[in-house]
Amino acid sequence: MSPRTAKQFKEIRENKSFLILNAALEMFANNGYHNTSISKIAKHANISKGLLYNYFENKEDLLIKIIDRGIEKLFQSFDTNSDGILTNEEFEFFIHENFRIIKENIPYWKLYFSMFFQPEVLSIMKDKLFMKINNLLNTIEKYYKNKGVKNPAMEARMYGAFLDGISMNYIMDPENFPLEDVKKYIIDKFCIIDNKKS
Amino acid sequence: MSPRTAKQFKEIRENKSFLILNAALEMFANNGYHNTSISKIAKHANISKGLLYNYFENKEDLLIKIIDRGIEKLFQSFDTNSDGILTNEEFEFFIHENFRIIKENIPYWKLYFSMFFQPEVLSIMKDKLFMKINNLLNTIEKYYKNKGVKNPAMEARMYGAFLDGISMNYIMDPENFPLEDVKKYIIDKFCIIDNKKS
Amino acid sequence: MSPRTAKQFKEIRENKSFLILNAALEMFANNGYHNTSISKIAKHANISKGLLYNYFENKEDLLIKIIDRGIEKLFQSFDTNSDGILTNEEFEFFIHENFRIIKENIPYWKLYFSMFFQPEVLSIMKDKLFMKINNLLNTIEKYYKNKGVKNPAMEARMYGAFLDGISMNYIMDPENFPLEDVKKYIIDKFCIIDNKKS
Amino acid sequence: MSPRTAKQFKEIRENKSFLILNAALEMFANNGYHNTSISKIAKHANISKGLLYNYFENKEDLLIKIIDRGIEKLFQSFDTNSDGILTNEEFEFFIHENFRIIKENIPYWKLYFSMFFQPEVLSIMKDKLFMKINNLLNTIEKYYKNKGVKNPAMEARMYGAFLDGISMNYIMDPENFPLEDVKKYIIDKFCIIDNKKS
DNA sequence: CATGAATGAGGTTTCATTCAT
DNA sequence: AATGAATGAAACCTCATTCAT
């Protein structure tokens, strides 16, 4: 297919749905889901309350669509090659990707993490999300297996936990986070240099 | 009959207060702060709504008291010897302590982590909490410095992030978490065996 | 009868009922009836809520007793000679009495006036109060009739209204009220000097 | 159908706002501010509780808007010529105005007077109100000064108090109040006929 | 497609009153 | 006579959602 024209892009950008999602995301992330009223979202998106209900069924639907959109985007980056086996370069690339994606949309990731601790929200997304996460962990596990690590499942899990913890810390205060040094640290700690194996 | 003594009243208050805090904690942790109404808490604690307000100023006060109680308890465990320098034994002991405390009160830790992503809730506790956390990280930093690690501040920070990530994963599904293996993994990865230094 | 002994006075003064009435009066007058809770009154009177209900049936009863006590006191001053005809000296004396009584218990008079505009409260006291007031006005009317004033009923009524208005203004800001000058003004305006008649 | 125009919306708001203010005024005046619940007002105005909060921020805001509207209206009548000096005709005219305005909206004036004795309510309006009242009294004072009265400030103050007292009496029972006779009485007592001066 | 007035259920909070001790 | 824990009705207020236009 031919690439989208500038006009098409403009249309997409101007799409009300997109605007609303952004407005809602920002407010959910900064003020919390329950603390953000539909009224405020509509005002922030410069539309009326009524119109919002033309685009989204209800408040919860809005949240789901936001999370959906984010997950989609995240796993796109990691879906390439997901069946094959990671090289060290790919492993390192994924780390960079991980933080690039977070940096790109910090509010989203605030919301994403908060979700994990709000059971009523989590239950909506749980299945879809856990499938995706398991996929990723399996890829990492294969990587470790291939490198001859003793307990690759554990290693993958610990890697995942580490990334969770670091991402959380990053999100809490992105300005003062030594991002580049941390990336190096992760690579040093979790990427298996081949002669290290011996 | 003669009226109750001051001591009797005090006892009643302490017991009831304890009951309410537990009921509220459980519900806040499982359903989220905003999703839990005072009505539901009162019902869960088998008291009237009105009585709850006899014990706590308002919903926020209830949350603060819960978090306070938890923080107090947590940092008690780590306050011993906080000025001195950790030995390896102490380092390992603290890891065991960390998980023992979490295991003891999983709902509390759910609430604790969820707090970090609910800005309007976090702001209530931020100062008190961050001071305590920094204290802990400084102790860890000294440990690494003393062991001759190159960048002890970074190492301490990464250790903290790792513990955060792992604790989070533990809380999400405590039943299926290989706790003992994980502890060993952490010790292996973050405890500096002295001849390793050279 | 012999005058009350110091001991008897002390008993009266210590009477709980008296204390409670005073505490309640003060708070009703300063903060409004609906804005004053039984709890606060009990605290202010240094007793428990429960005990208050030993002395007074309920909150409204407390109010009624307060107003009652005040009216009793007020009209005591004016009841002497109420059947006879006022001399100018008595007329002037009553003006002095009026302000002396107000000065003695400003909170009470704040409450008294506020009552007139709270129908649900007024209705409780209306009959008793209006009878007393009419008595007084009749005495004044007779005074004017005897002095040969043309429309003594109207004159008495206007005198009453004037005293209401001035008392109201006095109560609002007693400190800055030129009490003595005002008394003279009233006497000059409403007391009939006999040779003025001609 | 096409959506309502901005003008239509404005009209709806103004009409409904007016309705609510009237309903609230009536109930505040007849039952007292604290004795009137938002629920009752809404019912009286034939709207839902929620809608009331669409129009007024809260109960206090509703009260303020009512009082504001009344003060605005009252002082409009007296603002003409306020810098110049009153003639006798104007002085008399103002007396007629005073009672005309009260007669027009008795509930409002009940509320107005009741306010003075509800401290927590008064404090809301005090400053604005006292400024307006002082303005008026100054005009009266100038009138007396110009007529050569000895103590014009006192005379103005007494005039004000008298009008307060009479207005209060009028409001309490408008049906049986000899309005016209009273007006004459006031003019006779407080309007300075020029040859009286000598 | 678009508006915001309108609803009503449900949330937080207060407080007069009762009652076991 | 005295306490304050406990209740429950009712207050204020919010907000997701609907709907006439």
Explained architecture:
The first copy, chain A, is mainly alpha-helical. Chain A has two domains: 1-56, Homeodomain-like (Arc Repressor Mutant, subunit A, Orthogonal Bundle); 60-198, Tetracycline Repressor, domain 2. Helix content of chain A is 77%, strand content 0%. Chain A has eleven helices and no strands. Chain A has helices at residues 6-14, 16-31, 38-44, 49-55, 59-79, 88-104, 106-115, 119-146, 152-172, 179-190, 194-197. The longest helix of chain A has 28 residues, at 119-146. Chain A is elongated. Chain A starts with 5 loop residues before the first helix and ends with a helix. The model of chain A has no long low-confidence stretch (mean pLDDT 86). Chains in contact: A-B, C-D. The structure holds a DNA duplex (21 and 21 nucleotides).
What does this entry show, briefly?
The structure is a homotetramer of 198-residue chains. Chain A is an all-alpha fold.
